[in-house]
Write a structure and sequence with these properties.
The complex is a heterotrimer of chains A (154), B (386) and C (171). In chain A, 27% of the residues lie in helices and 16% in strands. With 154 residues, chain A is an alpha+beta fold. In chain A, the strands form two sheets. A three-stranded antiparallel sheet of chain A has the order 2-3-5, with no helix packed on it. By secondary structure, chain B is an alpha+beta fold. Helix content of chain B is 45%, strand content 16%. In chain B, the strands form four sheets. Chain B has a three-stranded antiparallel sheet. A three-stranded antiparallel sheet of chain B has the order 8-9-10. Chain B has a two-stranded antiparallel ribbon with strand order 1-2. In chain B, helix 4 packs antiparallel against helix 12 (274-295) and helix 5 runs antiparallel to helix 6. In chain B, 48% of the residues are buried. Chain C has helices at 3-13, 37-46, 106-117, and strands spanning 18-22, 29-32, 52-61, 66-75, 80-81, 84-88, 95-97, 120-122, 150-151, 154-155. Chain C is elongated. The N and C termini of chain C lie far apart (48 Å). The chains are: A alpha+beta (154), B alpha+beta (386), C alpha+beta (171). The B-C interface holds B 56-57, 60, 62, 64-65, 69-70, 100-101, 103, 226-230, 241, 243, 248-249, 315-320, 322, 329, 331, 333, 335, 344, 346, 348, 352-353, 356, 385-386 and C 24-27, 29, 51-55, 57, 59, 70, 72, 76, 79, 81, 83, 103-105, 107-108, 116, 130-133, 140-141, 169-170.
Chain lengths: 154, 386, 171
């Protein structure tokens, strides 16, 4: 290229670089005056909004063993076993007044398979299965991720 | 190639002395600039690339086989994970395909919410593409600024659906949850903040002389190549054809909004080079802001989901429905046999065709230009491998 | 140009290759014979302004029994996407002509159809698997496919012992 063209390239490069650096400095001074925008985890934690989909929890006293959650789960991570109630046993009701016809024997969720899609908590008719805001539950052994909710029975 | 002069009969003659060979370079599945687990087997002669063959399949998760064994509503979380950076657009494409099989109509409130959320997701996806392209070219600041703005959009989505990246929000017949006035105010505040930012990002990266010299006249895809390879979306518009599914085959309520379709003009180099595609993406963000501004104030009252019943059983039939996603036209070819599970779900992903052009685009360029080309194709391996 | 116009033009030009149409809702499709599909696609590209090929996919119908290859050529001039179906016998010898030299888009799509269904494409320049590993046995998307237990010494399914769920879904 000719010398004039070369000078034109140098001029373009200098002008655009200074323009870009000007934008960077403007944002730099704004951050200096307003303060840090990075949240220093784990000393401070962010507030999760209402309805965040974290770890699942099932209140087994309200569960009527309809198995809708296990059927709709895309990854089949909910394991339910329920037997028919023996004749003559005491009638059991949930908090909302629905009569339980089946006896829940086993309710486990393998949370390492769960994909947090929210389908199971939507189809639960008594709303006993819901998402909490918990997201810090790492374990050292993969078997410990199979959560047994019958332990929380009253 | 190296030469040596020897004297033969008083005349100087050139003789080749150093033996050279071609280098087989494996840009392996783990590499910072391959945008995912992509493997490119490159044969170079010095710095010039002779052959660049992409090998895919490292993220294959058998989506189509899973979809044949799950109910229609349980396929939605799988569809989210196809193009995980633009998850709302994927879900909308699948929901529109099943709704055309069922023949139901979506309530107007749900249509408004769907279009607003889709355009916000388009802005977030283009910000991600802008950030990672700047990172490939060596501009780390662009990456940080792009991600800062994308965080604000992700905060809005977290309030709406409960998750940050894979939402499962667009259900068949409408949306998962309703939208509240607080979220509408947050979207309006974001638009006021973001509107001047696109010009700022153009001044920072797009018109910078170093970025310009690295991306003009590189990776030229002309219209004939687009048609032969079946490329759609930004590739077509960068090559000069004004084709956008939202205008030419409108779905949802896109007939009622006004927006332009940006095309590449070859302003800074050849028509259809990497710079053209980049400026088309930046201009699309401005048009998305325009669409949201027209819709945000007039959301009608009503239900947010049509009544579809507990088990979705479409009548037997087939459909091929396409929607405009940030990376191209996403197509779903659905075959239903009347039962509760789909018979065949075939997903036509735009990135699959984009990456197949790499061999032809990189003949005779340098290795640094190969990186610039891969960055401008804007691929996401989740969609390529499914 | 509508679907009916195109079907009439094709039936007049290729009376042996076009075997009829399937009136499925909402998208109808045209049945083509395996020997005539290449000529039909070339005619669509050269005469009827179908500039691009969007998709080539495979479908398995064990009930018929047949394997099917579905082509979706698209036109920007007429704003329409056609659906062409080719039925092949469900054996290991299911063969059809490749259309790679007409549309370069067919290259990778046909490789994927071969990978998933085992349909051979004659005259394909690079006929090998694309998504599965090179030495994988079997064709995964067929309806009677059984996942192998081991691949090169590594276990393939997620669980071997009886810890599958008692209700819902398949494993």
């Amino acid at each position: 290229m000719t010398f004039t063209e070369y000078l034109g390239v140098v001029k373009d490069a200098t002008l655009t670089t200074f323009k870009g650096m000007g934008i960077t400095f403007k944002i730099f001074w704004k951050v200096q005056s307003k303060g840090d925008i990075t949240i220093q985890y784990p000393e401070t934690r962010d507030h999760l909004p209402l309805g965040s989909r974290g770890l699942l929890f099932n209140d087994v006293d309200d569960c009527i063993s309809c198995k809708q959650c296990a059927v709709v789960c895309p990854v089949d991570c909910i394991y339910i076993e329920a037997d028919k109630k023996e004749a003559g046993s005491q009638a059991d009701f949930t908090k909302g007044g629905v009569k339980k016809t089946l006896d829940l024997k086993r309710f486990e969720i393998d949370v390492s398979l769960c994909c947090y899609c929210g389908l199971c908590s939507t189809v639960c008719p008594t709303e006993c299965l819901y998402h909490t805001k918990e997201y810090e539950y790492s374990v050292l052994d993969r078997d410990k991720h199979i959560m047994n909710y019958m332990d929380y029975k009253r | 190639m190296s030469f040596d002069t020897t004297q033969v009969n008083g005349q100087a003659e050139l003789k080749e002395t150093l033996r050279t060979d071609e280098l087989l370079l494996n840009m392996g599945p783990q590499h910072p600039s391959t945008h995912g687990v992509l493997r490119v087997v490159v044969t170079t002669d010095g710095e010039i690339v002779k052959d660049a063959r992409p090998e895919i399949g490292y993220l294959h998760r058998c989506f189509e086989k899973h979809a044949e064994n799950s109910e229609y509503i349980a396929v939605s979380p799988y569809v989210d994970r196809l193009d995980y950076l633009a998850s709302m657009n994927n879900s909308m494409g699948y929901a529109i395909a099943v709704e055309s099989l069922l023949g139901i109509e979506v309530p107007r409130r749900a249509e408004f919410i769907r279009v607003i959320i889709s355009e916000l997701q388009r802005i977030a996806s283009h910000l991600m593409s802008y950030g990672t392209y700047g990172l490939d070219m060596g501009a780390f600041t662009a990456f940080m600024y792009g991600f800062r703005d994308r965080e604000m959009i992700l905060d809005i989505f977290e309030k709406i659906s409960g998750a940050r990246l894979l939402y499962n929000y667009m259900w068949i017949g409408g949306t998962y949850r309703d939208i509240t006035p607080e979220i509408i105010k947050q979207i309006k505040d974001f638009l006021i903040y973001f509107k001047p930012k696109v010009e700022e990002y153009n001044n920072l990266v797009t018109y910078n002389k170093i970025f310009l010299e690295r991306t003009r006249n590189i990776g030229v895809i002309d219209l004939k190549m687009c048609h032969s390879y079946g490329l759609t979306g930004v590739m077509l518009r960068g090559a000069g054809l004004k084709w956008d599914l939202r205008k030419d085959h409108p779905y949802s309520i896109y007939k009622e909004v006004e927006f332009d379709v940006p095309v590449g003009t070859g302003q800074m180099g050849t028509l259809g080079d990497c710079w053209d595609r980049h400026i088309v993406r930046m201009n699309e963000m401005i048009q998305s802001i325009r669409i949201i501004e027209q819709l945000i104030d007039g959301i009608p009252e009503g239900p947010h989901r049509a009544k579809v019943g507990k088990v979705i059983k479409p009548p037997a039939g087939e459909v091929y429905s396409r929607t405009e996603c940030p990376r191209g036209e996403l197509g779903f070819y659905l075959i239903s046999d009347g039962s509760g599970k789909p018979y065949r779900v075939r997903c036509k992903s735009p990135c699959f065709m984009n990456i197949s052009t790499l061999n032809e685009l990189s003949q005779g360029v340098m290795v640094a230009d190969l990186i610039a080309t891969i960055g401008s194709l804007d691929i996401v391996l989740g969609e390529v491998d499914r | 140009m509508t679907f009916e116009d195109i079907f009439l033009k094709l039936s007049q030009k290729f009376p042996q290759a076009i075997l009829g149409k399937e009136e499925t809702k909402p998208d109808a499709s045209i049945k083509v014979s395996p020997e005539g599909i290449r000529a039909v696609i070339q005619f669509l590209r050269d005469e009827l302004q179908f500039e691009t090929l969007h998709l080539v996919s495979g479908v398995d119908y064990p009930a018929l029994p047949a394997l099917c290859v579905v082509y979706h050529p698209g036109s920007y001039t007429h704003k329409i996407v056609l659906s062409l179906k080719v039925y092949l016998p469900r054996t290991d010898e299911a063969k059809v002509q490749s259309v790679c030299d007409l549309f370069k888009a067919a290259n990778w799509h046909e490789r994927e159809t071969f990978d998933m269904y085992g349909i051979q494409f004659v005259n394909h320049p690079d006929h090998r698997r694309i998504l599965c590993p090179e030495d994988w046995q079997g064709f995964p998307l067929r309806k009677d496919y059984v996942t192998p237990d081991y691949y090169n010494g590594m276990p393939v399914p997620l669980f071997f012992e009886e810890s599958t769920p008692s209700e819902g879904g398949t494993h």
